[in-house]
Amino acid sequence: MKKSDFYYVLPHQLIAQHPAEPRDSSRLLFLNRSDGSIAHEGFRNIVFHLNEGDCLILNDTKVLPARLYATKQGTGAQVEFLLLNCKGRDVWEIIAGPGKRAKVGSKFTLGGGILHAEIIDVLDNGNRIVRFIYEGNFYNILDRIGEMPLPHYITEELADTDRYQTDYARELGSAAAPTAGLHFTPELLDEIRGKGVEVGFVTLHVGLGTFRPVKAENIQEHHMHSEHYSLPAATADIINRTKQRGGRVVAVGTTCCRTLEAVAAKTGCICEYDDWTDTFIYPGFEFKCIDALLTNFHLPESTLIMLVSAFCGYKNTMNAYKIAVKEQYRFFSFGDAMLII
Fold this sequence. Notes:
Elements: E1 27-31, E2 38-42, H1 46-49, E3 55-59, E4 61-63, E5 67-72, E6 78-88, E7 91-97, E8 107-110, E9 115-122, E10 128-134, H2 138-145, E11 171-174, H3 186-194, E12 198-204, E13 227-231, H4 233-244, E14 249-252, H5 254-267, E15 273-277, E16 292-296, H6 303-312, H7 314-326, E17 337-340
Parallel strand pairs: 1-17, 3-12, 3-14, 4-11, 14-16
Antiparallel strand pairs: 1-2, 5-6, 5-8, 6-7, 7-10, 8-9, 9-10, 12-13, 13-15, 16-17
């Protein structure tokens, strides 16, 4: 398939700049993938679409305040660092901009001197490998001097940065939020559990590659970024019990989907696993684990809309997006949700 097959026209005013208040007051487009039928509901209605014996799997990654501002030693030039993933003790892969100011050997001061950095490598994709030098706890320093790395299409200031975290976020390491989970409140999750639906968690640390455009017109030539994930034994047990009793595995977000399908593809089952995945899911992909998907509305021509198309069918997906635009749903990270069963 071609990248252009996944293009749609999105009016700029439909790109949500702020999260819904309260979290679970978003709209929900319900899509039946067997016949393509669509219903328009409120997000809280997700409870009525889940059955006793199903399980709901969420990504508990926590977004780092990963945007840092550095001053180059010797010249005073300003460079922005965006942390991507930790490569080892105090060594990180980052995006540096402008990159020409961050050559191998360049040294930087951050936060008025509480953090220092040196560029130790430049990767083929232009990302940098940097070693940080500091006293104390690195993550405490990030909390003091870092900023939340909101996506480029969110241009308005976020008053409460916790709204770019899920309510159940606990494992630090993401450069972006698993946004399908932003709609859940503790009360709604309790209501779901009360219906006899088991709730489990995986961790996939979302990389900025999520927002990078597909450049190849033939989508099979696109190379996915790699992201670290962890599937704990307790969650594997929940999924396997669900399958045994004939229930459905409902993945909250494309990150959960990629985690579960990566494990199933690699091991042939669902079990405790910790690894990196560059799985690219597009139409023709054979799903081995999930039975339903909750997701937000994604950018045109993105790997995420391709994943959704793989799960519910290309025609169903593009028709749902056309209708969502017509009905003025809110799009992208702070936007509304779609439940596909």
